[in-house]
Amino acid sequence: YPSGNLAIMVIREGDQMICTVQEDEPRTTKIRALFQSDGRSTCYYPNGDEWINMSIQGGQYLDQAGSRVKRWTWPNMSPGPHVPLSPIFISLNRHVGVRILAQDKIIISFLAMGRQAKFNMGTKVQVGAAGRPPAPARLGREELLLLAFRVRILQLFDRMRGCISFPSSEQWNKMQPPAYVLTQAAKILELCTAADISEELRSSIRAIVN
């Protein structure tokens, strides 16, 4: 961002890519969106609630109360009637926008100081011989640890803010982390359950985020 804060981070692990959009805030690393090249993506409202959630089957758009505004399925990806996508554009903040045009056209655009960068995080999943899409790729050891440490950093920043706000009180130590941090911690633990990793690593990740 023009402020110097990190806006977008892209990492690659093997043939998988993860794009993370962070909020323009000096003391937090609040995640506004997470896009994965295996077809799973999530965008968040500023308060951490889910805005858009996508999988290899389709996606849904939620309002700030958590009610579903629209849903869609990608062509040939889900059984039953196909629900087409109407193009979606959202602004995560004044610099970052997301356009969802098709499964293989999910564009993250960044605009600042008259210059623009675009990232296409869409993917084209091929239907298997049995008529079903392949199972989504699972995150590896390094990706899971990176996500876990990011949540831990968010937790530590929140504790620091509490300590600064209540320097002469121990009340800050009893405060719960923000909802978006708890949501991200739960998602990481869910990913660990599905991942092909050792039980020792699962326990380490649980200890990091809890």
TrEMBL record:
Which InterPro entries does UniProt cross-reference here? FAM194_C
Q: Which residues form the FAM194 C-terminal domain?
A: 1-174
Superkingdom to which the source organism belongs: Eukaryota
Q: Which PANTHER family match?
A: GLUTAMATE RICH 6, SIMILAR TO CHROMOSOME 3 OPEN READING FRAME 20
- What protein does this entry describe? ERIP6 protein
